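Shipment paperwork, digital attachment
Item: protein structure file
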Amino acid sequence: MGEEPNDARPEPSDRIPGDGPLNRPPQGTPGAQNGASSSDSGSGTGGGFGGPAPWEAPAPGASSAPSAPSGPSAPGASSAPGASGAPAPGFGPPPGAAPGQGQGYGYGSQPGTGPGPGPATAPGWAGAGTLPPPPAAPPGYGPPPGPGPRGDANPAQAALVGLLNLSCLGLGYVVLRNWIGAALCWAATVALLVLALPADVDGVPAGLLIGYGVFLLLVAADGARRGLRATLSLGASFRRLALPLAVVLLAVPAGGSLAYGAARDEAKEQALLERLSAADAQVKSADGLAFDKAEPILAKALDAYEDLGTNKAGSRAGKLVPARLDAYYESVSAPYRNKTYCEAIAPLKHLRGLGGTFDKDLLGARPAKTDDPLAHSLYECGTSALGVSTATPAAEESLNELFDTFPKSSHTTRVEPAVRAAIKTRTAALDSGTTPCDTTNELRTLRRSLLAVSDAALDGATREAKEAVQRGDFACGTDQFKDKDYDDAAKTMTEYAKEYPDSTQAAHARSIAIAAEIADEEPAAGKSLPPATVPGGSRMIMVVSNDGPGEVELLYTGPMTGKVTLKTCTTCTKYPGPILSQGKKIKACTGPSSKYPKATLLLPAGDYHFLQKRVSTGTSTAGDTKSSKAKIEPGYSYTNCLYVTSGF
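Attachment content:
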């Protein structure tokens, strides 16, 4: 059978007084042995483990109980020489004692080896009939301190190891010298750091955090289980500091979580700032583009500004949005500051309209501040487009929008004086005769714009523009005639006479148109404009007959300008040409006078140019024309026969 270690230690108060580490009697004392031997069994009932515990002294006046008889000595037991039959002092448990029963350190000699009572006292002890308390073991002797291989449970130690494992560093396993468990903790923590760092906006997946938290709880529980009965080779000072240190180390995961949260928040802030910078770059990239192309780019930037300013208002980027909106308005309204008013209309309308699509609290009063710049731009663009046929937008578009959107604006009241000034300027240009046709076209465009403006404030200016256009048309026709642009002059004056039949210049315009048509065939007829009035004095008769197939129109210009139309001669034919006539003189209009359609002209004396224009028939071609000239002298009458010759 094995032996259980005896862990009992005598307290200092229980030690036997005397000298020597075991309070033995000094050498040479009668009955003392020079050496003590321990035995698992022995004969006699001396001061060993066989009798009552040494510190259980009998009552005063009582004698000690006799020892139980002992069996034979264990083989190999020795006794001191010269002491044959004398009992030897004992040390160790009494023979046959059960473990944990009657254990104590015995000391002294007991008479005899058989049954019977022994002396109740030992040398050096005061008082009769008492046993000394067990002596303390000297340094280096006795069992080691602390629990054995399966010592008593130590909850504080278990809590310490568990808390150390919760530090994410596996320190509980390190204390237990469980290096595999510590390595697992280190690997899990490193893996988490690799996946979590650097901190980004999305952070660590929730599943990973939950898994790591469960892992920490498991290793903490496992560490506590292992540390409950473990033997730890820790110094006393470390034991005193271990538990506070474990609690402090719990700040590692907590502090790491806080630091990671702060890093993630900073990553979010940086991401929002980057988004803000991207929106700024979009606004900058739209600078200089036509607004229809820039608007989609600006819309994306505005979406970013609105989201940052409303949903992320507390972020650093969100707090910068108001300043960015100021810069946005400044950038988009740049054409107005550059005085390119027509280009500024669309951007300013966009800025003004943001109040209906953008967050009103974020915009504040910014949209209202664009009212005056927009009204000013509409006025400048509209009035500058007056008379410009290629203007975009047209004058009426800008002016109508000004009257409709800002009827009470100071810029609206400036429109009517500006229109009258534009008409006056162009009328003066007509009088100078520099470019009357171009000026007339401007006036015509201006009149068309005014007719399209719905506001009644411009009715008077519209009438002035109409009169100016009429003057311009006549001035343009006469200028074209003088520039020998006879075809255009004829068209211009013909249109004038049709459009303004009641004009006092209508008759003159018809004369210029006739003269221009003749001059287009006979340039000499365009040396001067036909007179505006018919000269007075005597008139000479000229009878004109039509001796040819087809209706004929006779145009004439000189001191007097006009035209007559002669009906077709149904019985007349073409005369032979120079080849067929063989040089014979043509004798036209030699038949009965009643045969030929006639017209009588009363012409003042002077040089005239004639142009006959015959209408096509079955025997004549359209556009057959022939020019001629004649001099009308006073006191004479004249005849003029119109005929047609063939090409042969």
